[in-house]
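Note to self: keep these together.
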Amino acid sequence: MGLAPAAGVLFSRFLPGNTMSEFVTVAKVGSIPEDRGGTYVVNGRLVAVFFSGGEYFAIDDLCPHMGASLGAGEVCEGVVTCPWHAWRFSVCDGTWRDNPKLKIDRFEVRVVDDEIQVRMPEKKA
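Structure:
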């Protein structure tokens, strides 16, 4: 059974033969406004991609508190606020701003031509 997209979730292009460690295009440059984010499915996983301070960042989309979409949260000075209960995470490294011992996953992002690409790490055996 596959993941059904929630409202506002975009599926990224996944070409046959791609491995989990390859970059996957999620959006076009300019499609994510400054200090905003979007939610994308990358290799079966929900990823929040943000444009903040002129750079793109990608972290786990699901807030560890109650599972809200961080891609729908407000971004201010590189920090996204969960829309449900106001948990705050750094978009650059996934650190919970109220307890730096807790982090959510972050993912490598690059821009190639006009494509924003995210790389998922290899799954550990």
